[in-house]
Specification:
- This is PIN domain-containing protein.
- InterPro entries: PIN-like_dom_sf, PIN_dom, PIN_Pae0151-like, TypeII_TA_RNase_PINc/VapC.
- Keywords: Magnesium.
- It comes from Candidatus Beckwithbacteria bacterium CG1_02_47_37.
- With about 130 residues, this protein is of the alpha/beta class.
- The protein has a single domain, classed as 3-Layer(aba) Sandwich (Rossmann fold).
- Helices cover about 55% and strands about 10% of the residues.
- It contains seven helices and four strands; from the N terminus they run E-H-H-E-H-H-E-H-H-E-H.
- It has helices spanning about 10-20, 25-30, 40-55, 60-75, 85-95, 100-110, 120-125, and strands at about 5-10, 35-40, 80, 115.
- It has a four-stranded parallel sheet, with helices on both faces.
- It is globular, with a radius of gyration of 15 Å.
- The protein starts with 6 loop residues before the first strand and ends with a helix.
Amino acid sequence: MAENTNAVIDASLVLAWLMPDERGEAVNRIFEAKKQFYSPKLLLYELINGLKMAVIRNRISWQEAGQAIVLFRRLGLRLVDQESQEEKILNLAKKLNLTVYDAAYAALAKKLKLKLLSLDKKLAKL
């Protein structure tokens, strides 16, 4: 099958994969597919914040958060700088009624002509 195996992924999907209580079969299948994943650099901050909030909510320990970051690095995710894309991101946010953060993922998927994978139903429909 000549299907493109690359995709843009957002923080919701990465966090679900890293959090034992959120990881399900559908999430596992995505990461087992051996795709090359891309994300805006913004994902790093969303990931770190998500892990911090998981610690605060007693879902994981600080040590587990650190281990999750190590596991994240092993994904080989390509983080893309979106400098000079600000106007396109703003226009997409306006057009699709998205947060600027979500529009950054959508803009990257559009630029790379790749599918956007997300657990956010609105983003997944784009």
